Structures are given as C-alpha cells and as structure tokens.
Amino acid sequence: MEVFLVPLGRRGYELYCEAEDHSVQADAAAGVGLRRRVSVSFRESLAFLERERQARLARRAAKEYRTVLQRVRDRVLGWMAERVAEQRLLWQLRHVAETTAHYPDDLAEADASRVVLHSLRQDATRHLRWGSLNLAGAVLFAPFTFVPGPNLPAYYFWFRVVGHALSYVGARHGLTRVRWRYAPSRPLAELRDLVNVTGEERVARAREAAGRLGLAHLERFVERLLLGSA
Asked: Using CA atoms, how far apart are residues 18 and 26, in angstroms rounded to an integer?
C-alpha cells in the first residue's frame, strides 16, 4: 500500500492514497448473519454514492439545468461522497501489514514518522467520538423503522456509524500493527508552495505533480484541501 504525506492546508499535512477499497467487499463476502447484512448494505451504499458522483460530474460537464431540490440533493450526496473518500485510506489500513509513506524530501524521516503517527492518533480519537454520536442518532431514529416508507435519518446514521467504526479500526491497526517504511519525494515537497498560488497556475502545478507521482485524483484532493483551509 502506498500512502502520501501531502503538505497543504492549515493543519500542515494530510495522508492520501488512491487504493480501491476492496476490504469492504471482502468483509461483505466473508461475514455471516448480521455482520454480512450490514456489510452488504454498506457496500451497496458506497456503490450508490459512486454512481451519484459520476452522474453529478456528467451533469455539471453538460451544464444541465437542476431544480433547487435537485441541487440540494446533489450537495448532500456530494458531501457524503467526500466523507467516504476521506476515510478510504483508514479502511484500507485494516488489512495491510506493511505500508510505504512517501513524504516531502525537505522533511526529515523522523519528523515524517511523527506526523503520520500523530495523524493516525487524531483519526482514531475523532472517529471514535463521531461514531458514538452517530450511534446515538441511529438509536434515536430506530423506532421509526416500522413506519411505512424509508427511514432516511436512521439509514444515514447507521451508514455513518459503520464508516466511523471501520475508520477507527483502521487507525488503530495503523498505529499498532502496520510496519511503516518511508520514502522521500521531491514532487510532494513542491506541493508545499501551492498555498501561495491560485487559479490556473495552481491547477497546472498540482496536475504536474500528480503525473510525476502516478496519482489520478491528487489534483482534486489538493484543491479541496486548499479550499477547506482558506
């Protein structure tokens, strides 16, 4: 598994990877009983969000007219898709024994290691907290499951509970079980300067770095990170 320590935003660094999440599919295939049903439902929800993301990008490219309610729906589903993208790295960590972390070559390896482990500790704490809060929401709306029609609030909270649980397990596994190797990277170091540029120059430089690193979606991740830290 390849992980990239991206030096952007006010928080300093973000962990990033582009591995597909086969681990959730494996859980669905291997589980039994309630665990299998939850895993299958979660996998189907991920597939739905991905289809919606592709359709939303196609509509945007075609400049298709959308009503206010359709735009609100797109925003909500888009927000959920972004949260899924942020958590895939931790989901993957649950099933790996060794990982290579690529870090900016203007950073010492020991410092890169501290950043990676600190990030995982923060992730474990954050996902445990939010998972507990979403579990409370799922329990609160559980009685409405028997009311005719889809219980969308309960479905949402349970989806979030499973996502946070997988992320927490991944973060803990990364801290205690994964053997980390570190590799310096010049293109990652060059990304540090993108906070000082905007517009087409930022896009071009992010795209150029992504090409050198062999990453298909790094450009979009960089833009989202910079916008979030503005």
From this structure: 18
Contact 191, 8 (CB under 8 A): yes
Give the residue among 53, 57, 56, 115 at the shortest CA–CA distance from 84: 53
- Token pair 């990030």 is at which residue? 119
**Helical packing angle, 152-176 and 68-93, nearest 10°:** 30
User: Is residue 53 within 8 Å of 61, Cβ to Cβ?
Assistant: no
**For the segment 92-145, what is each residue's pLDDT rounded down to a tens digit?**
898 899 999 999 999 999 999 999 999 999 999 999 999 999 899 888 877 765
Cα 131 to Cα 168: distance, rounded to the nearest angstrom: 9
This prediction's pTM: 0.73
Q: Quote the CA–CA distance of 97 and 92 in Å, as a whole number.
A: 11
Burial class (CB in 10 A: 0-12, 13-18, 19+), 177: exposed
Distance CA 24, CA 19 (A): 12
Length of the chain: 230
